[in-house]
Each structure stands twice: as C-alpha cells, then as structure tokens.
Amino acid sequence: MVAYDLFALGAAACWAVGSVISVTPSRHLGAFAFTRWRMLMVAGMLWSVVTVSGNWHNFDAHAWGVMALSGLVGIFIGDTALFSAINRLGPRRAGVLFATHAAFSAALGFVWLDERMSLQAFLGAVLTLGGVMMAIVLGRHKDETHAWEADHGHVGAGVALALVAALCQAVGWPPPCG
C-alpha cells in the first residue's frame, strides 16, 4: 500500500464516521443550521492552516471563484440536501442513495467532458448502481427498531434530497484550474 491508498482509506473512514456522528446534531439543529455550523468550523480550521503555513499567496482570483462556486453547489446545497435526507431517511438509507454520486459523475463526464468508459468500467458502474438499488430495496427489515431507521417525514422527499445531494457532489467538484 502506498500513501495515497492510506489517505483514501482515511478519507472514507472519516466520511463514514462523520455521517454517523452527525445524525443527532443534524436532527436537533436542522439541516440548514447544522450545515452552516459545519461550514463555519471547517472554514476556521482551513484558514488557520493556510495562515500558519503562509500559503495565502497560492490562490489566484480564478481559484477563489471556482472554490466559491464549488462550495456553494457541493457543500452548501449538497450538504444541506444530504443532511435533510439523513434527517428523513436515516444515515444508512441516505448514504446508500448518496453513493449514486459516482454514477452522476460518470454521466456528467460523458456529457460535458466527452469522457468514455471502458466496457469493464461501465459494467462495474452498472453492478455498483444495481447494488445500491438492491441495498435500498432489501436493506430495511420490518423489525428495525433503532431510532435512525425510523422515517421522519415523507420518504419520497428524503429520496429526492439524497439524489440532489449526490448530483451536487458530482457537480461541485471544481474543474481543473490549469
């Protein structure tokens, strides 16, 4: 294993732990307030690191615009929709639906960037999307009693919010600044 493999595993672990520990605060504060507090805290941490490292000069005007647009779509709209979906569906089902962001990314790359997949990659994507759908259909049992598995609000709205969050995640990645 090389360093970037470990970084990828660490990012996935942080994402998984973060989605589980955020359920209670998100339900208590509401999705919008929770996202606002998260953004303020992360911005403070990022500004501190950049200030200590002295890297403010590395950002040109174009990068600021791209970062702002990416933050608006990917974080503000996307995270607010994701936490609204988590509040309605619970972290497991919302997370499973949010996993469709890879399919959205591939489709957007095909349409906007003229990217093409190999047959093997396409079959892998189809199997992954099929697995996501099976997890949604077969994943919940009638005897589930945990509070996170309870529906809060309209399930269709929760599904739509999770898909909006996935789409915003796919769109929110900044394009190359080169």
Short characterization:
This protein is mainly alpha-helical. Helix content is 76%, strand content 0%.
Overview of this protein structure:
The chain has 178 residues and is mostly helical. The chain has one domain. The protein has 8 helices and no strands. Helix 2 crosses helix 3, helix 3 packs antiparallel against helix 4 and helix 4 packs across helix 5. The longest helix is centred in the middle third of the chain and has 29 residues. The chain is globular, with a radius of gyration of 18 Å. The mean pLDDT is 80.
Give the radius of gyration: 18 Å
Number of strands: 0
Beta-strand level of the residues, as a percent range? Answer: under 5%
Mean pLDDT: 80
Percent helix, as a range, is over 70%
Count of discrete domains: 1
H/E series = HHHHHHHH
Oligomer: single chain
Query: What is the 3D shape?
Result: globular
Structural class, please?
mainly alpha
The total count of helices amounts to 8
Distance between the termini: 30 Å
Unreliable sequence segments:
none
Q: Main beta sheet: strand number and arrangement?
A: none
Q: What is the topological layout?
A:
Blueprint: H1 3-21, H2 23-29, H3 31-53, H4 61-89, H5 91-98, H6 101-112, H7 119-138, H8 155-172
